[in-house]
Amino acid sequence: MNQEDLDPDSTTDVGDVTNTEEELIRECEEMWKDMEECQNKLSLIGTETLTDSNAQLSLLIMQVKCLTAELSQWQKKTPETIPLTEDVLITLGKEEILQMMILSYKPVGCPLNSLQF
């Protein structure tokens, strides 16, 4: 293609190209800033921090739900009666004695020996 084949009305000046390029860059930078602002807004959505009282309330509600579920399970159970035979009483007595021994055991030189429960 020769220079003379070009339509003189369709050719643009180098200065016009530079101005157009600078305008595009400015528009891109503005869009980038807008996009960053939108990203910041999106990242903040749903990240509201709970106040101490709200956190405590949420924790208490969860505990109530757990305890309610546990109570419901216990209420569904039927108690079993244990026959008080000699063997059962001996076993229960041994367990009770072992628990008392464990609770009263204080190793020599243990700093916890001076504590009273």
UniProtKB/TrEMBL annotation:
Keywords: Centromere, Chromosome, Coiled coil, Nucleus. Its main location: nucleus. Residues 1-20 are annotated as: Disordered. It is found in: Chromosome, Centromere; Nucleus. GO terms for biological process: kinetochore assembly. It comes from the Eukaryota. Belongs to the CENP-K/MCM22 family. PANTHER family: CENTROMERE PROTEIN K. This is Centromere protein K. The gene is CENPK.
